[in-house]
Structure formats: C-alpha cells, structure tokens
C-alpha cells in the first residue's frame, strides 16, 4: 500500500462527505463504479481513484466520465511502481503533482498513457534534469504558441491542434511531465504589472527543488525563459494545488484549490498587512480583501484573501502599486498603495466611500527591473538549442500539413455547394477536420443547416467539437426554424451559451423534465430560472470558481456555480425552442420576448444609457484605453464593451441603474500608468454623456534604463561588430526595419518629412536590415539619400530581435523595433510597431535624454 494512513483517513472522510453533496443520480452511478473498481483493480488504484475524486471539484464529478479518473489513477500507480524518476519522492509531491488529473481550468481528458508511450523510449536512461529538457523539445515538436480565446482546451486537443495560448501550452506541458513521472505544476501571473497581459509557464521538481521553464519553449538550461526579466517585475505569481499541502507560502484557499505564492523564486517581495474594520472600529472578520493590479484599464483581482479573526489579510507581493479593496455586507473601502512605502494598510468599511462625478488622476507604478536569475547559455549551448528548436519546428509543421485531407475537403465543398468560408474554417480545424467533414457529408440535414450550425461555433470549438453535439443541436431545434429567422442559429441551434466546453445536453434536458414542466417553461421562460434557483444548489467550498458545471452535470448533481446556472438556463431555453443568451457585456442570462431580450433575474430591459464621447482626433480602444465597471454588493465588476463600435465620436451603451466607475489608462514605456477614474450613479431610465479624459505624462516619465545583453551585427563587408562597441558613447537610435511592410513604410515617410530635424539631432541613427536585398527598396534608398548620416548594419537574427524586445517589454512580433540608447548597452526607450507621429516622439525623447 503506497498511501499513508493519514491520507487514507482523509480521503475516506472527504470522499464520503462529497458523496452526500453530489445528488442521488451521480451518487448511485459513482458508487456502482467504485464497487466495480474495488473488485477489479488493486488497492492502490482503488484508493488513487478515491483520492482523485476527493480532491477534485464537484463540477469535475459532474462533467467527466469515471473512466478518465480511473485511467489517470492506474497510470499514476504504474509510474510510482516503475519509474526511476519517482524514486524517493514524497507522498505529497506524488499526489499533488504527478497523480492529480487537474492542472488549472483546462478541459479534462484521458491523455497520460498516450503521452507516456510517445516519450518513454526518448527519456530512457536520462537523469531527471536531462529528461525535463528533452521532453520540452518534444513539447515544442507538437505544440506552439498562438493566441486564442479564453476557454482552455484539453491537453490532448492542444496536441491535436498543434497550438495554444500560454495557458494551454502550460497545461499540456504539465500533463506531459506528469505522464512520465516528473512532478510539475503550472505557474501563473494573473496580470503583469508593467504591460497589459498575463502569462503562464511550468515549474518542475528536480534534484530536491522547484525549477522553471517556458512551456513548449525549450532551452538547454533550466531556470531560463523569455519571461525571466518580466517575472522580476511581477506583483503576484501563484500556482494551484488541489490536494493537502504543507507549503508555507500560501496566498489563500478558495473552495477546492489552494493558491500558493511562487513570487520569491522570481522577484523581490515584501509582506503587506491589511487591517479591515467596521465603522464602529471592530475587526471586519471575513471581509473579502482584493489585491488589484491595474491592467487593461481595470483593477484586476490578482489575489483575494478573507480577513481573519483580527480583520487582517496578509500578502507577500512585488514592489509596485496595488489597489487594496475590502468588502463585507455591501460596505466597502479601497486604497491605492505603493508597496515599497507601505507596511500596513487600514481600511474602514463604509456604504458609500467614493467621490462622485469628477475625474481623479492617479499614478500606478510597476516594479523596477531586478532579475534574480541571470543564468545564460554558452555560445555552444545557444547553437545546439537553436538547431534542436529548428528541427522541432520543422517536425511540427510537417505534422500540421498532414492533418487535413485537402482533396476530400475540396470535393465536399464542391459537391454540396458550401461557401468558400467553410473550406477555410475546416482547414483551421486541424485534426478535427476529418470529423467535421463526416458531419458535412451527413445527408440527414441540408447543406444550409449544417453550414449554419458550424458557423455558430468559434475557431477553437471547431478544433475539438464532437459533431454529435451539432447533430443533437439540429435534430432538437429544426421544428423551430421558421419561427425566428436570423436568430434561429445564433440563439437556438448554437450549442455554446458562454465560453464553456461543448457537450451534448439537449436530449438529456428534454428527457429530464416532464411534458407539463416543458410546456410551462415554454409559456413562461422565467419559470425555468425559478426552477433552477429552487432546485440547483451551490457549494463554494467544494468547487473551483474557474470551472463551470455543464448543463447535464448540473441537473445530475443538483449543484452549479452562479455562471453555471446561467448556462443551464440558456441551455434549457434553447432545448425548448426559446431564443436565449448570456449577454456578453454583463453576463446576464436573457430570453427573447416581444420587447427584446429580457434579463431573467430582473424581468426587465436595460433602460439607462451611457454615451462616451471623444475628440475627433482621439482613438479610444476598450480595455487598452478605458474600462467600465459596476459596483455590486460592494465589489467592482468589470463590463465587456469590446463588441460595441463607436458611431463617429460617440459610443452608446445600454445598462441597468446602479453605481459605475470608468478608468482610463495611459501606459508609459517604463510600465507605469498615468490613470484617471470617474464614478457616477444612474437611476432608472437616466442617460449620461461622459467625455473621456486621459492623464498625460511628461516626456521624461517615458524614459527607462535597461542594461542589454551584448549581441553581434554585421556591416556591409560582412564583418561583425558588437552592439557594445556601436553604442559606446553618445546617443543612438537603433531601428530594426521590416522593409516593404506598411509599418516600416510609414516610419520611413515620416523620417523624410522631418529630415532637417533628424539631420540636426544629437543622436546617431542606425538601421538594422534583415537582408542585403532590402537596400534595393526605393523608399529606403530615398531615406538613406535624404539622411546620409544613417549607419546601416545587418541583423537577420530573429532571436536577437525577440530577446531585445522581450528585455525591453515591447511586442517582439511587431516591427519596426526602435531602441534609444544613451551609452554602452544602456537602453532608455523602446517601441515596437508604428503609431502616427513616431518620428516626433523620437525627436522629443532624444532631446530629453542627457
């Protein structure tokens, strides 16, 4: 028996308690499966299955088949008994970071044995460190980065797609490492402090401690990644643990997950103590304390901690600004702090502690660059790594090319008369294209109906959807096709209500309710919500808030989160032929009436209007430049206006009455933000026009100071020169051009227009080209003729551009890349891409640099 007595006792108690909370239907089903497992599997496997269930959210009990848990348990026990990589491992590490099936919020799947079989021969005889490095090259051979929507695809479907965003790459990679017996976990920055984004990577346990690496981003060394510098500027870095843990650095426990504080491995930190009191001066026990990072123009809740019996909440965090918000019983308070200047914060909860209807300017400071990990590969390691990565990329590209049978796809599109768009969409569906082609050939439905169904789902959904879901959606909906015209496919056929994993549920729903219940629901859709509120519970202590319970599962276990209840409502409506949706702006569940979409919880239409106004020369982009949030029960909830479009210089938004806050954002190149906020109240039927305001920064506030690693470039005689030599003494503007592309063309035009100013500036202008043929470009020739003092060098190394851009916190995918230096390898300003009047900005910055 590999489990300790303590683990057995805890598992028995927890599993039995959760059994009482999972509903009669699921309880009977699971008890039968567990009895079969007790009879057919070893004791270790039986208890491993039981431990997995006891340490998984109820939503996983509801959403996934028993076989997924069983096969994960069997593989984990197989590894424990057979893998040399697990020799001497502690029970805690094995359970939480090898056996456990869940990484974060990804869709679960049965993948561990498959990944093991792919890799076991490749890592045979390697040490743990060697195996980790080798496995990450295999990861890169099979999955690479590509931005996608926020739903986290399963690891096996990331493999079948050959790409994913960083959260999907890391969930895939952690599963691969666990599959061969390497303890691994996903590490997550909920939001960067210095730029608008987040990131996830991997930590692996090796040689007695945790090490980090980029997911699907192989190196010849551990503890190295493009994000190393960026992580040194983080405010919060955490990982998740779903089992019992003895780790000391814990941020908080929420439901079934413990948030561990991983910051100290990457950045300097400091412990902040927040004390929350009532207006009577008493400790506000169980007040919800949120530590917010200003990102995408909102204070994102990077950490949430419940105040203890003394009204205190503590967090070890990075050395930048934080917005501390406390809330309890509808009362709240908040304060913006700069961590280096703060040890303790005291907040007093009030009902309306805000200033109304005036713009309030403030500065949000990002932590300074202070890298704790300076490990660098040797030149030989760089060369080896580059060759291995090129080979990995080549393998992946070859696999991608073979995923879709183009001849069959063209034939189907031609034979059935599908639009060209369908061809393109299936081409993007990677390995799932074959299943979708089977669906397109299904003669049970017309080409129009099949086309309409496929067009309701996203690119990601098409990569992993089971076509049976589309068949079910059509077969249960076609009787309503004539009733709703253009709304039919979007709000009845579409099998996805929000951003949840797709599943079959309509036949289950139709069989679950009696004929009389269904008739009542169709006549009065609000009765569906009444049923859900009366019959579907929510047990936060047994859940993980990032996961939704799918509709059939919610009805089976009689439990679902607030968002899952909305998804259930919309699913029941659509199964019964009632157009319904979750509003993308505020996540309200709505059904269609003669008046329009009604919010089911209030029974009302939105009757308030906010009109944002801008100057004709201004460009305001939602999230990048401003956000809107509503105050609910003392908490700010951000609204999503990204689907709305400006009408000239006005953006109109229909909302409910309530308290609102607008934040505008002016992020500087050094990562700091000059921001403004405006708070106001709307009564029923009220309309407000709001002129957007941005807090402007002085040009000197845009400067930074970053030391660059040295790199080689080549002159026109193919002789190399070190960047340290080039930048030694004086000011230099280094410009990596993408000759012939529009952003570079715009910049070159501006240089010609301002040639006199650039001729007279006290800085040396340096162009870096990727190819000698660039010198034949007419526009470039004109610039070099107009500004003969420009020095020209060649740098065809994409890694140079990427490393420099990452180091200076600008987008490595956008050229031109502009770096201003004021001494040997000392960068004071960087920008990537093009914006109007870039040349003026360069002149102003050069003038301000000493």
General description of the model:
The chain is an alpha+beta fold. The protein is built from 31 helices and 34 strands. The strands form 9 sheets. The chain has a 6-stranded antiparallel β-sheet with strand order 5-4-3-6-8-7. Strand 28 and strand 29 (720-722) form a beta hairpin. The termini are far apart. The mean pLDDT is 95.
Q: Which helices and strands occur, and which strands form pairs?
A:
Layout: H1 5-19, H2 23-40, H3 43-54, H4 58-63, H5 66-82, H6 91-99, H7 112-123, H8 128-142, E1 144-145, H9 155-161, E2 163-164, H10 166-180, E3 184-189, E4 199-206, E5 209-213, H11 228-231, E6 238-241, E7 250-254, E8 257-261, E9 270-277, E10 288-295, E11 298-306, E12 312-317, E13 321-328, E14 331-338, E15 344-348, E16 360-364, H12 379-401, H13 406-416, H14 420-427, H15 433-440, H16 447-454, H17 459-464, H18 467-475, H19 481-484, H20 487-493, H21 506-512, H22 515-523, H23 526-535, H24 551-557, H25 562-575, E17 580-582, E18 589-593, E19 596-599, E20 608-613, E21 626-632, E22 635-638, E23 650-655, E24 658-667, E25 673-682, E26 687-691, E27 706-707, E28 712-714, E29 720-722, H26 723-726, E30 732-736, H27 742-753, H28 755-760, E31 764-769, H29 778-786, E32 791-794, H30 798-807, E33 817-821, E34 826-832, H31 838-848
Parallel strand pairs: 1-2, 9-15, 20-26, 30-31, 31-32
Antiparallel strand pairs: 3-4, 3-6, 4-5, 6-8, 7-8, 9-12, 10-11, 10-13, 13-14, 16-25, 17-18, 18-19, 20-23, 21-22, 21-24, 24-25, 27-34, 28-29, 30-33, 33-34
């Amino acid at each position: 028996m590999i489990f300790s007595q303590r683990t057995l006792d805890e598992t028995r108690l927890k599993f039995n308690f959760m059994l009482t909370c999972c509903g009669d239907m699921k309880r009977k089903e699971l008890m039968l499966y567990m009895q079969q497992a007790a009879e057919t599997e070893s004791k270790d496997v039986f208890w491993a299955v039981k431990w997995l269930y006891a340490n998984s959210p109820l939503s996983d009990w509801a959403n996934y088949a028993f076989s997924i848990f069983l096969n994960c348990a069997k593989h984990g026990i197989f590894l424990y008994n057979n893998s040399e990589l697990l020799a001497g491992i502690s029970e805690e590490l094995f359970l939480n970071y090898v056996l456990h099936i869940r990484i974060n919020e990804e869709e679960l799947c049965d993948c561990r044995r498959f990944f093991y079989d792919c890799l076991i021969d490749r890592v045979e005889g390697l040490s743990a460190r060697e195996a980790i490095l080798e496995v990450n090259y295999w990861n890169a051979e099979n999955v690479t980065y590509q931005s996608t929507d926020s739903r986290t695809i399963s690891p096996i479907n990331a493999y079948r797609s050959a790409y994913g965003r960083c959260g999907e790459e890391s969930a895939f990679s952690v599963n691969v490492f666990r599959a061969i017996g390497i303890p691994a976990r996903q590490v997550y920055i909920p939001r960067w402090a210095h730029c608008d984004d987040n990131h996830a990577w991997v930590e692996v346990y090796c040689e007695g401690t945790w090490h980090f690496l980029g997911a699907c981003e192989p190196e010849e060394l551990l503890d190295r990644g493009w994000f190393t510098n960026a992580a040194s500027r983080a405010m919060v870095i955490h990982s998740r643990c779903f089992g019992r843990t003895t780790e000391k650095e814990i941020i908080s426990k929420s439901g079934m997950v413990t948030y561990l504080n991983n910051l100290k491995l990457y950045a300097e930190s400091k412990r902040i103590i927040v004390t929350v009191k009532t207006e009577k001066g008493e400790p506000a026990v169980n007040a919800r304390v949120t530590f917010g990072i200003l990102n995408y123009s909102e204070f994102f809740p990077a950490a949430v901690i419940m105040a203890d019996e003394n009204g205190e909440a503590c967090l070890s965090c990075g050395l930048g600004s934080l917005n501390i918000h406390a809330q309890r019983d509808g009362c709240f308070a908040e304060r913006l702090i700069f961590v280096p200047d703060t040890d303790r914060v005291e907040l007093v909860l009030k009902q309306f502690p805000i200033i109304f209807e005036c713009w309030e300017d403030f500065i949000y400071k990002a932590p300074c660059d202070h890298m704790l990990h300076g490990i660098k590969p040797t030149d030989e390691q760089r060369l080896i790594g580059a060759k291995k990565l090129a080979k990995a990329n080549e393998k992946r590209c070859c696999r991608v090319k073979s995923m879709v049978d183009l001849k069959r796809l063209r034939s189907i599109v031609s034979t059935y008369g599908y639009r060209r768009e369908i061809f393109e969409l299936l081409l993007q569906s990677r390995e799932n294209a074959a299943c979708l082609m089977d669906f397109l050939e299904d003669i049970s439905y017309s080409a129009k109906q099949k086309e309409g169904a496929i067009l309701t789902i996203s690119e990601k959904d098409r990569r992993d959807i089971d076509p049976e879901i589309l068949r079910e959606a059509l077969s249960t909906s076609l009787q309503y096709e004539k009733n709703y015209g253009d709304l039919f496919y979007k709000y009845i056929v579409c099998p996805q209500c929000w951003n949840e994993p797709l599943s079959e549920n309509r036949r289950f729903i139709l069989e679950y309710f009696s004929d009389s219940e269904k008739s009542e629901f169709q006549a009065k859709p609000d009765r569906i919500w009444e049923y859900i509120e009366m019959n579907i519970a929510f047990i936060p202590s047994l859940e993980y808030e990032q996961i939704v319970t799918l509709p059939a599962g919610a009805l089976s276990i009689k439990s679902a989160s607030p968002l899952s209840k909305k998804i259930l409502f919309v699913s029941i409506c659509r199964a019964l032929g009632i157009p319904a949706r979750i509003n993308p702006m505020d996540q309200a569940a709505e059904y269609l009436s003669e008046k329009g979409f009604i919010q089911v919880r209030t029974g009302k239409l939105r009757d308030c209007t906010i009109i944002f106004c801008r100057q004709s020369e201004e460009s305001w982009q939602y999230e990048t430049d401003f956000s809107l949030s509503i105050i609910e029960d003392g908490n700010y909830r951000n609204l999503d206006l990204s689907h709305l479009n400006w009408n000239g210089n006005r953006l109109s938004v229909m909302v409910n009455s309530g308290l609102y806050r607008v934040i505008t954002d002016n992020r500087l190149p050094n990562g700091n933000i000059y921001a403004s906020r405006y708070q106001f109240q709307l009564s029923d039927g009220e309309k407000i026009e709001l002129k957007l305001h941005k807090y402007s920064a002085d040009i000197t506030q845009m400067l930074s100071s970053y030391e660059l690693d040295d790199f080689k470039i080549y002159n026109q005689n193919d002789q190399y020169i070190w960047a340290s030599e080039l930048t030694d003494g004086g000011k230099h503007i280094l410009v990596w051009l993408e000759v012939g592309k529009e952003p570079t063309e715009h910049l070159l035009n501006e240089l010609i227009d301002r040639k006199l100013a650039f001729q007279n500036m006290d800085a040396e202008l340096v162009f870096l080209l990727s190819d000698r043929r660039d010198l034949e470009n007419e526009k470039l020739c004109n610039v070099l003729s107009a500004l003969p003092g420009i020095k020209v060098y060649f740098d065809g190394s994409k890694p140079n551009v990427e490393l420099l851009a990452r180091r200076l916190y600008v987008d490595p995918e956008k050229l031109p890349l502009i770096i201003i230096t004021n001494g040997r390898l000392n960068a004071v300003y960087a920008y990537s891409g093009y914006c109007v009047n870039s040349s003026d900005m360069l002149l102003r910055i050069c003038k301000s640099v000493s």
